[in-house]
Structures are given as C-alpha cells and as structure tokens.
Amino acid sequence: MTQSDGAFASLSEEQRFHHLKQTPAISWPALGLFLLGLTIISFASSMAITDGIPLWSGMLANGLGLYLLFSIMHDALHRNVSTNRPLNEIFGRISLFLLIPAAPIEIARWAHFQHHRFTSNDQDPDNFIHDAKGWQIPMRWSNFDLHNYIKIWRLKHEELNAQNPAIQVGFGLTPLNRKVED
C-alpha cells in the first residue's frame, strides 16, 4: 500500500465519495480508451480496405472501436474527461464526429442532459428509439440526431438558442438570425 492509498483509506466514506466525484486534470483511462478506439478503427479500416482482413471482420472491429469512443463521448458530454475544457471538447468532438458526423456536441449534450433530466419520463428523448416497433429501430437510431434537431427547434430551448453558431450551422441558419420565431 502506498502512502497515498493509506491517506485515501483514512478518509471518511463521505470524503472518499467527494474525492472520487472530482474530474481529474486528465482522465488517463479515458485517454487510453480514446487512443485504443482510434487505433482499432484505423487498423481495422486500413486492413479491410486493402483486403488484409475480410470486410465483415473489419466491420466488427470498427464496432468495438466505436463502442470505446462512445464511452469517451459520453464522459466528454458530462465534461468529465478533463478539467481543461478545450481538451475535454476535443475528445468529445472527435469521438462524436466518428459516431454521428453531422451532430454538433452542443446538440448531443442537450439531448443527453434531457435524457438525465427526464429519464423514463414521457419527455425522455431516448423514447424516440425505446418506443419504436422492432422494424423501426434501425431507421430511428440512424435519425436520432435529426429528431433532436427538430425537437430543439420546436422547444426553442433557452440554453441552445439560435444565437449559438454551432446550432446555426446545424439548422442551416445564417448568423444574421437572432432568434427562432414560430
């Protein structure tokens, strides 16, 4: 046991819990998963494209790499990859781009926080997929970001208004628009 382990063990349960909730300067496990996910995707894609491995095995490997990047994107949405906000956003944007290329992180963050706010409620954005019939799931999953764009447009959510440049690009609006009108 190291000295720091002993110091951690001597803390009360509440103090340990508070310590564990703190976002690190950089999450080394997240960085490792990020690099591993990118490596898997790069290696599997290049091998499949050059006929080094069968296409189906490249697709499976890419699925694993994307799964790892989903974890990083999720932590970045919560701003838990790093206390350095630009670094956190870089991890989140790269991961999200590989998962859903057209979705700005601001939309993904809003939708994800709505999910936490309304989990298992009628307003939970995940219900768009959860309430689908089996045959609809692939189409709904592939249009989840579009569904949330429309939902934000309709709600005119005060945190993500039309003055945000990323939302303007996402909706195809010009910078001259100041607010969304009915």
Question: Can you put this structure into words, describing what you see?
Answer:
This protein has two domains: 1-99, no CATH class; 103-182, no CATH class. Helices cover 64% and strands 0% of the residues. It is built from ten helices and no strands. It has helices at residues 3-9, 13-20, 28-49, 55-77, 85-99, 105-117, 127-130, 137-142, 144-155, 165-171. The longest helix is centred in the middle third of the chain and has 23 residues, at 55-77. It is globular and about 55 Å long. Mean pLDDT is 81; it is low at 173-182.
- How big a fraction of the residues is strand? under 5%
Share of helix, binned: 55-70%
Rg estimate, integer Å? 20 Å
Global morphology: globular
Major beta sheet, specifics? none
Low confidence ranges: 173-182
- The count of DSSP E runs of length 2 or more, i.e. the number of strands, is 0
What value does the average pLDDT take?
A: 81
How do the helices and strands follow one another from N- to C-terminus? HHHHHHHHHH
Distance between the termini: 63 Å
Structural class of the secondary elements? mainly alpha
Domain count, please report it.
Answer: 2
Q: Number of helix segments?
A: 10
Structural descriptors:
182 residues; mainly alpha; single chain; 2 domains; globular; 0% strand
Write a short abstract of this structure.
The protein is mainly α and 182 residues long. 64% of the residues lie in helices and 0% in strands.
